Amino acid sequence: MSFAVALDDIRAAAAAIAGAVLRTPAVAAPALAELCGAAEVVLKLEMLHPTGSFKERGALNKLLSLDTASRGAGVIAASAGNHAQGVAYHARRLAVPATIVMPADTPFTKVERTEAYGARVVLRGAGLTEARQAAEVIAAAEGLSLIHPYDDAAIIAGQGTVALELLADQPGLETLVVPVGGGGLIAGVAVAAKALRPGIEIIGVQSALYAAMAHALGRCAAPAGGTTLAEGIAVKEPGALTLPIVAALVDGIVLVDEATLERAVATLLDAEKLVAEGAGAAPLAALLADPDRFRGKRVGLVLSGGNIDARLLASILQRQLVRAGRLVRLRIEISDLPGALAKIAGIIGDNGGNIVEIYHQRLFQDVPVKLAEVDAVIETRNPRHVGALVAALAGAGFPTRLLSSSAIEGS
Question: Which residues does the annotation mark as catalytic?
């Protein structure tokens, strides 16, 4: 079967970008293998590129494929994230004028970062679809070469260099797990990997809210859309070039929900000290969501990027502490007398709890006038430790109940 991209194209892309794009490491993650029941887990660290994602590979390969006149006239791309930065970064290196069209509501930090790479940023439209339409208009008006984020043979070939490196470093891998948006990355990986190792298994992973590729293949209902942590793969329509490659060469697609994506981001940081964005952590989310599929296998995960907002990352880590029963909220009933609050603080401290926040409620709770309720957010060691704290408070005459912790309530 003939596709838009072949192994020779990917090998040519590897030669073209060599020395200008980082050859990212592939590292073993025994803690993740044990967690998921896999024989081995290897992580391909694409977040280590200067712009924080794999998109540099395809962007540079596409730029190098343009003739001198096209480079001189300039290029244009529509993106609010990693593709924008990959194009801008390498366009500046090659002295190619670059215009990036972003949706009008793109956060200023992303605009600023892209401009810092030397690109002209144009804000147009209410979303990426309208931004792409605006880019096409500008491209035609100004004679610019449009660089599509995934539906382009040179882009797909560039992304496929991930598989060449990964299988050269880890030839024993049995399964590769790759995030899927429009399909450029998984299409390139699948072409290279299946040509080199016909028996290897290729598994895609998508946000359940944006399962456009799986839907196009008839493997799920139409996706609902909405807010997702994995915005890097929140694509509403797969590519015309990528879809037939995925249909022929990809062995399955795992859909993951938002809670599992959050857990994957937190687990990578906690267990491997790696910062991944939602889309970058999606391959681990697939293992967490469906461990039986990967049990006993040697699995390679393509961690595609690490561009996550610091405040969002902090929120994810706090929420994971709640899920693990290490950050809880207790409601404690006390007499409204001097020293009562100090007593409960002392009991919590004596039993190893750390008070993060505390609220003393007298007026707005349905309690007798001589009593008060205290809501305390407490850092603990584990669910058993929470139980000991509750028992200690109750034993000292302070009735206490747990207000939040799904991990403890389900244990």
Answer: 55, 304
Q: b/e map of 19-56 (b: 16 or more CB within 10 Å)? A: eebeebebeebeebbebbebebbbbbbbbbbebbbbbb
Find the range with the poorest average confidence among 299-303, 310-314, 347-351, 369-373. 369-373
Asked whether residue 193 carries a pLDDT value surpassing 60, the answer given is yes
Are the C-beta atoms of residues 72 and 93 closer than 8 Å to each other? no
CATH 3.40.50.1100 fits 7-54+152-319, yes or no: yes
Domain boundaries, the chain: 7-54+152-319, 75-143, 325-409
Closest CA to 355 of 311, 389, 397: 389
Tell me the fold of 325-409. Alpha-Beta Plaits (3.30.70)
Q: Tell me the H-state helices in 79-227.
A: 82-93, 108-116, 128-142, 153-169, 184-196, 212-216
Helix segments in 330-382, DSSP class H: 340-350
CATH domain 75-143 topology: Rossmann fold (3.40.50)
Q: Which of 40-49, 187-196, 343-352, 360-369 has the lowest mean pLDDT?
A: 360-369
> Rounded to whole angstroms, what are the CA distances from 334 to 338, 347, 404?
11, 13, 20
Query: Quick one: how many helices (H) and strands (E) in the chain?
Result: 18, 14
Q: What is the pLDDT of residue 366?
A: 64
Q: Give Cβ neighbours of residue 224 (< 8 Å, ≥ 6 apart).
A: 209
Element (H, E) at 262: helix 258-272
Which residues contact residue 51 at a Cβ distance below 8 angstroms, ignoring those fewer than 6 apart? Answer: 82, 85, 86, 89, 117, 307
CA atoms within 13 A on the CB side of 341: 13
